[in-house]
Amino acid sequence: MKPIRSVEVVPFLPPELECVRELAYNLRWTWDHDTINLFRRLDKDLWESTGHNPVLLLGSISQERLNEAATDEGFVVQLDRICMKYHEYMRTENTWYEKHQKGKKGVIAYFSAEFGLSEALPIYSGGLGVLAGDHVKAASELGLPLVGMGIVYQEGYFRQYLNADGWQQERYPMNDFYNLPILPVKEKDGSPVIISIDFPGRKVFSRIWKAQVGRVPLYLLDTNIPENNKQDQAITDALYHGDSDLRIKQEMLLGIGGMRALQALGIEPAVCHMNEGHSAFLGLERIRMLMMEHRLSFDEGRQVAAAGQIFTTHTAVPAGIDKFSPELVDRYFGDYARGLGLSLAQFMALGRTNPLDSFEPFSMAMLAINLSSKTNAVSKLHGVVSRNLFGSAWKDLPIHEVPITHVTNGIHAKTWISDEMADMYDRYLGPKWSEDTTDSNIWRRVEDIPNEELWRIHERRRQRLVSFARARMKKQLEAKGALHSELMEATEILNPEALTIGFARRMATYKRATLLLSDPERLAKILGNKERPVQIIIAGKGHPEDTPAKELIRKLVHFSRREDVQGKFIFLEDYDMNVARWMVTGVDVWLNTPRRYLEASGTSGMKVVFNGGINVSILDGWWDEAYQANVGWSIGRGEVYADPDYQDAVESQALYDLLEKEIIPTFYERDKDGRPRQWLSRMKNSMSELCPVFNITRMVREYALRMYFPAYSRYSEFLANGAQKAKDMAVWKNNLARCWKDVHIESVESGTESKMQVGDDMRVRARVRLGQLTPEDVSVQIYHGPLDAAGNINEGEIIHMMLSDETEKGSVSLFSGAIRYFKSGRHGFTVRVVPHHDDLGTPFETGLLHWASDPINVTA
User: Fold this and answer.
1) 0.70 cut: is pTM over it?
2) What angle do CA 37, 42, 43 make, to 5 degrees?
């Protein structure tokens, strides 16, 4: 029955407790242990049963308990202290950003399809969302003028449970937004702020919710409102669930709707950061807004917009990129493209690797790359992978020069560290460890932590993980209607003193969760050793439509039921941030087994480091650059074999060998006081070497210094004086594209020597026909380096040639330069011409490049 009127009922808080409401609606509590303990103190059981959601806690707790807390002097004193600290944090102006930007206030808009801030706000699925959540938390800590933009999903990501056979099943509980730590954004008259975007034959409307994350506002879009039909209300139902039609609608909402939401809120970002390609349509909407407001052409608006746009790719394989058919793009963007002054072919070209291929689908990643001034991968190795993945978009450009850099991911330490570890760091590292997690001098003090105290805290965390796993397993069995005897057995699984290995992540097949099961008898023998017990805790979800991933889970569950491993190998259902936090703070070893080159970064292993855990991993993602022999273990040395089955066989045996010969003996080799001295040394090495590097503070500072600040300056310059610089650049690029066909290297002259000594110079001269271009429009370069076995220059170096005073008729210019040889061996060189303009973000953004051709008149 539909009500004739609705009213929002909020809990009545006694005046002494009014600040609790403010604390509940600012997700700063997710990384402040004092505030979390305050909520837990109100009602410990309710805190757990509400999923650590303080808003729902306040809406569920009895008025009697609130009144009691208001008269509890100890509670009120604790609350006052926390509120004072909170308000001081919110008004602090002397932040890292203020020190580096000196009063500049250009807003950075950070767009992501998911944000993992807390299990209490279930609008995330995995690593991408958790990284986005950590990113905005760090932005708050650093004082960046950043706003987040995303979607609030009615069902969020699915909840996982397993049937009797171990097959994954999905539930989609509805999120009650009025009991989440978010608030509706309203107009001055109290009505909701509504934005609209154009869909075929109709408008789709969205309201805006706001989550406050410390100093950073995060705005979330929601189409489940009466203004839309039922089909459009469902656009924001679920995350990563649906066909291409639903996906393009969600991404239009995020990109186009997100920009319109910021406009409705009076926010004009100078920099837009796209966290993956889901939000790439924002670049088109930003161009449209610039065209309308500043009377610019599409090409002019594109120069301004791209100057202030950053794109981060998390993808390692083509299948991970959202792509849409020309027919689908035409259906949703035909009128939009014409409004931009573009034909469908011109519009499709913006999202294609080869703009001339009419059959190529529209790639959101390519759209983001084409409309950004900076593109980055999320680890050093992923940078190599990304340059190969997208390199064909830059025709004839050597892969190592493809303009995709990297900023290695990090984690927000205070979110993921245990209470006990944080207190210990405060005592021995000093309280500044959490203010600047990048200070390596502070982390060297880890050596000052007494072994006995570090080990005592670590053992306590392992014991608590075991208690959590037992309670979780019992709950899983109760839901399946297990027998009383089975429930009793669940309370005795795992050994609080045994070597505990954790493996928890999205259950994609490339992550090879079953690599451990390659030799089940050998693994069972390892787990069954009574003198040196080992146990493994596994968690993870497979995408609802990923049948192979579900099969992996089923195999893991079936193995866990073997009599000889029962209670030593367990699978925890419904992996989320809460389960992850228990695991990363309690395990001894964190296991990661992806196929090399397929893990973009990974961050769960970083969380373990801050809690004293040790990583054992394939050399992929972040571990490829983090690994040192004294901080953890590597499975193999980065070898890649053509046969994946052989790869699995080799690496599974290497993992078993590591466990039997290195990891287990090191863990159980104890001194006279019963402590594993070598293990503790490795724990300390891991913390002191890795913590100051693989943290979110370093990451966001790097984004700010390398990406945000330069983009802000460039965007401001391109928009100044009626966008004159953008207009000039658009004219120059169009002229360049028209005249480039006439650019030709007519001859190259070099020395006559066939052999040279180290330290010698070789002079090189090139005659270049430029047609209607001028020497100032180009850079003529020598590309040189050692030759490989096939006679190719790999990762050559660049020498810029100088324009000679000599001139010739017919638009031919002479350029000269010299190569100095510093190493012996076979070397080669060639010459190329690339566009040059002082305002280009990269010389390769035009896609134009001319090499000396073969045959060519080369005089030696």
Assistant:
1) yes
2) 100
